[in-house]
Write a structure and sequence with these properties.
Helix content of chain B: 40-55%
Strand content of chain B: under 5%
Radius of gyration of chain A: 31 Å
Number of strands of chain A: 12
Shape of chain B: globular
Distance between the termini of chain B: 32 Å
Order of helices and strands of chain B: HHHHHHH
Number of strands of chain B: 0
Structural class of chain A: alpha/beta
CATH architecture of chain B: Orthogonal Bundle
Shape of chain A: elongated
Radius of gyration of chain B: 16 Å
Structural class of chain B: mainly alpha
Number of helices of chain B: 7
Oligomer: heterodimer
Helix content of chain A: 55-70%
CATH class of chain B: Mainly Alpha
Number of domains of chain B: 1
Distance between the termini of chain A: 75 Å
Strand order of the largest sheet of chain A: 4-3-5-6
Strand content of chain A: 5-15%
Chain lengths: 631, 110
Amino acid sequence: MRERFLTGYNDFVLPFVCGMLFVLIYCLVGLVRIIMQLPPQDRKKFFISLVTPKTMIKNIKDIFLKCLIHVDLWKRNRLLGYMHSSIAFGWFMLILVGHIEVLLYTSHLGAKALYYPIFFRYFVAETESTMKGALIFFLMDFFLLVVLSGIALAIIKRVRSRFFGMRRTTNPSFLDLIGLYSLWSIFPLRLLAESFTADISGGSFLTKSLNYVFTEFLSNHANMLPAWWAYSCALGIFFFVLPFTRYMHIPTEILLIPLRNAGIRIVNARKGFAKAQVYSCPSCGLCIDACPMGVLKGNLKDTTVYLNRQIRRNNEARIEEISDKCLLCGKCTAVCPVGVEGDKLRIAQRSMRRYNFGPDYSNISAKEEIARCNKFVNSENSNVSSAVNEKVLYFAGCMTALTPVIMKTTGSILEKAGVDYTVMDRDGGICCGRPMLMAGRFAQARQLVEKNTEIILGSGAGTLLLSCPICYKIFREKYSLPGIKIVHHTEYFERLIREGRLKVHRDGTRYVFHDPCELGRGCGIYEPPRNVISCAGELVEAAKNRKESICCGGSLGSLTLGFDKRKAMTENAVSNLTAASPDRIVTACPLCLNTFSRYSDRPVEDIAQVLDRNSSPADITGNNKRQKTIS
Amino acid sequence: MDFGFKISPSSAINLDKVDLGKFEELHKAEPDVYKCMACGSCSSTCPASRFSGMSVRKVILDLQRGREKEAVALMRNCMLCGKCTMVCPRGINTRHLILSICRIYMEDGK
């Protein structure tokens, strides 16, 4: 390779160089701002994690797998995964191989290093020795082809998103469209420009062959310059609009991954980590199809992707509206390929609202509450061995008070199994604090947590049993109860069956299990309820289950959505559950039970009801019988 | 009722001294507040009624009568658990109503 021009410069590189410098400066300023906005202890944590070998390796691995290969998208949808990784990885390889090329064939670069790797083919001519670099020529053409195939898929996706299994896709903003079209045109223009020069600078299967075609009717080399100008302009436009479009996710995600790996959480809805998340949103629109509110068309613009867009635009009225409406089911977080936590963003946003006054619970006497619950049923029961004889404190929760059948059947099961238990809130107790937390009133939620902690620690129980997943989540995350095991009733029932303390008889009823948001996505409990139901009858699965389960629509997360507006969501969730035509719908959340019962066409039950109907006390004296009940 | 004409000017005298400005503001934010028919479903499910006598029904009636101080005192132990919303036969979003009251009214009931 020899250089064609003495100066190694042509005016056409200017749009690209200006655009690139602009993006680099913008990202650098943004990076410093986000890091400065982090709380001091988080900032320290972040810097330490950057030099810890373990997180360093994890960061590099995650950036490679997520930003370039898009593994999460591959797992979800192969076509979508290929489209994204072909563009991202292909482009990355073009830049990388371009740099290698420049390093191999030229020396004394200076300022030329800014644009040589991109426009290399314009500035050099092939010599006899060049064919040694045939592999590099091939690689450049190969990756260009890979990117072009991705772009072709992207164009198809824009026209027919259903082809990719997506029902709805994001409505792009004006600047997004400019970014999109310039991105689409970059690579065909590159192909055109490189093909024009392929007879001078060399090329491989793609550019060389096209060059033969072009020379048939365009033999004058003066024609190549407009193609290079167009290529540079496309790059320049893309870089200039990039900070104001969804493509900002490309540089931001590289920051988001190390921040997340450092264990940083959202504190302020607009600053620091939250800002990194908002700018990392690629507007892919996966959350639109995931959102349970999407059954009503009017709610489509209240999904996480639009929240991120409005936060970037500082549209306060819409931000408030979107964050108050959400049911906080967490499905958008579960499906998000870059890990934007839509639910946490909204809670943080809600916590920014100022109220003139708030509840105060200092008047509630914990001692009285302890006295109310501290009556264990059979502490002196000598039939039960001491290991079995643990003291269980059953906290039914506010929602269970509306579905007393859960409390009744749970009590009945505990008695059958000979558990020494007492109910903490038989006549209504203190709320766990999760609804308060979801409304963004952290100080009041903390007070409730402290009151309950005092009562639970004072009761002398060894296990805290919960039948409401909403309570379960906050008890696991925000309470510190040393020496007390916190279990959800599904886990506890599974244990009772496994230990042979309950005799379960199986019948032919077909059950479908609805994963409550807070139990499944919130706490990751998927297997225990399924194991329990399998012991009592035949378990069938819903069309969308586990991580993708659809919220019943009754969630307390939403502040503004009235119950009259939730019917369509509940009906949609029911039709999802009844895909395999089960006889009964089973759930493990009093709120889901309540909501489904209103609109379901078949009986809805809590898991405690199912187990209570199909179980009887185990014969504790005969050890061999225990084995039987499990199978 | 405005028919566009009147037979005689209104001669009604309003002797009510209550300043309902705040309540109007609340009504603007929560149009549903007038839907309440005081059935008391919310009161019977409220876990806070045991502590501060909380009842959304009473709070709404008190605010309408200008007894803000009493209403705020009732709300002292509200835990925002949302049961009142779920049982409301009129479909009033009581949770949001409570939050709006906290936003509009003052601690001392003014």
